[in-house]
Amino acid sequence: MSMSRRRLQRAANEPEMITHGTVTAIPSNLTVSLSGSITTTLPVTFDGLNISVAQDTGGYPWVASTAFANGQTVNGTFNLSGSLTLSAGNFVAYVSYSIDNQATWIVGPKVQFSLPSTSPNTITNFLISSPTNTTLNLAWSYSGSALNDFTLRRNGNIIASPAAAARSYNDTGLTLGTSYSYSIVGNFSAGGTTNTATVTGSTTGGTSSLPAILAGYYVNKWNSPTLSQCFSHGATHAYAFVAQSAASGTGTLSYSPFEGDAAFIAAKQAAGKKVILTLGGANDGGIALQTGTHVTQMVNSVKSIIDRLGLDGIDWDLESSSYTVANIISVSQQLVAHYGSSFMITMVPRPWETAPFQAAQQLQQAGMLTLFGLQFYDSPEYSNYSQGWSYIQTYINKAVSTYGIPANKVIMGVTGPNYSNGGMAYSLMLQYWSSARSQWPTLRGMFFYDGPIDQADGWGWANNVLPTVLSS
């Protein structure tokens, strides 16, 4: 291919069935990585097809080409990619092709890029990405004289000596919800060092320290409102509802986020909020937690969810699951051992059940229980104060006196007056709260099931009850 054939002009007779894709050019030192595409609506055989680079000056003199696909027949979209090492300067990149033995090469849209004119011997772009509860991924750029290696420090202490060619390092075994400071310096082969680059970042998750009084929402992944809306209405924590069986009859769970990702949730946690993953629910898809295999499946799948989203803990709500108390304890112990003592373990049982109280008792004795919620709904008696208070009093006393769960870990679960299966008026919620706090002054708070119900009721709980609970 002669230079004369690489004229940067668009032929008037370019077939309408051919469409250029935009080129992406990513420079690194004196190398540029190129990718692009071309699309045809009918089969077309190209004499020449490539990504080309030209100087970004008048006339765009051609410099080099990559990703040759000469003789390629395309019917649809064809992707090209490659890299070129060039001298310093300003350039444009574009997809070009020729067909039917034409002397003119037809070119697509041009993308500008530059390559540095000097080697600064400088570490740049030292960044932290993809935080999890226990890991931080570090990455950096360097151009300049030959290095022997790098020296990487965390909080002033050397943790690694990455090789000269390394541009990333994954720091593991960290503590959730903790800030770390890093520095990196390059060591020249001939002696001396580069500049020192620094960066600070935090693992996701957070400590289990909670406000003296709590007000939380269950946030249903299938309906609005969003997590943001629930927190904007004053909630201190939220239960991400709900992780369910990924394969019936196993302990493997799956969860599709209701909103956001790890960075999104980390921003809420930075504002002092907690987000806890609920396991099970009334229709859990067939969760089984009967054997050691089930325990391993659950631990591994929950770790995957927690690490992906950076959540603060788990919430046991196995209403229709097949399980043993011993296996609830085993899963909890393994997760706390993995994430640390600040990993939250909560339970929100239906109060007439016995096994969840037994599990909560053992979790409390092992120092792992963070909160114990009681579902004061799904029963019409709660709509009448006399009957409702008798039930509530009995079940809180069952938790505190019979099973030894401290009152400062107990929270009351309520739902709105329009709930079809036993809700209550907002005035009754306030009466129950006042009566319960009189008998158990350290009672920890209240949660509402669930966000969509309160939103549909005009945020009645958030506006009429939550402020009183939090100001108690």
Structural category: alpha/beta
Shape: elongated
Largest sheet: 8 strands, parallel, barrel
**Which strand order do you get reading across the main beta sheet?**
19-20-22-24-26-27-28-29
Please give a quick description of this structure.
With 472 residues, the chain is of the alpha/beta class.
Describe this structure in words.
With 472 residues, the chain is of the alpha/beta class. 23% of the residues lie in helices and 35% in strands. The strands form seven sheets. Strands 19-20-22-24-26-27-28-29 form an eight-stranded parallel beta barrel, surrounded by four helices. Strands 5, 6, 9, 10 and 11 form a five-stranded antiparallel β-sheet that branches. β2 and β3 form a beta hairpin. α3 runs parallel beside α4, α4 packs parallel to α5 and α6 packs parallel to α7. The radius of gyration is 31 Å and the shape is elongated.
List keywords for this structure.
alpha/beta, 23% helix, 472 residues, disordered N terminus, 8-stranded parallel barrel, 5-stranded antiparallel β-sheet
